[in-house]
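Pilot study result, target chain (80 residues):
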Amino acid sequence: MPRRARSIVGGDVCHVLNRANGRLRLFKKDADFAPFEQVLTEARERVPLRILGYVLMSNHWHFVVWPRLHSFHQFILTRT
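Predicted structure:
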């Protein structure tokens, strides 16, 4: 059974992560990280989301975000 969707409230600091299925690698070589960071930069230009920190690993990533009202949902929709 899938996990119930969580609501992210504007004004609250949140830890967000995305892990690949079956421990598959999202980034196979060092050069794969730069395009992801470029997409992240482009999304931040469109949607003002405060990203306090992030880390990218070969099979997952973590963000610590501080969204304004609805900005996180807009940010994710911009990039998916």
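One observation from the pilot: The domain at 14-79 is CATH 3.30.70.1290 (Alpha-Beta Plaits). A full batch analysis is planned for the follow-on phase.
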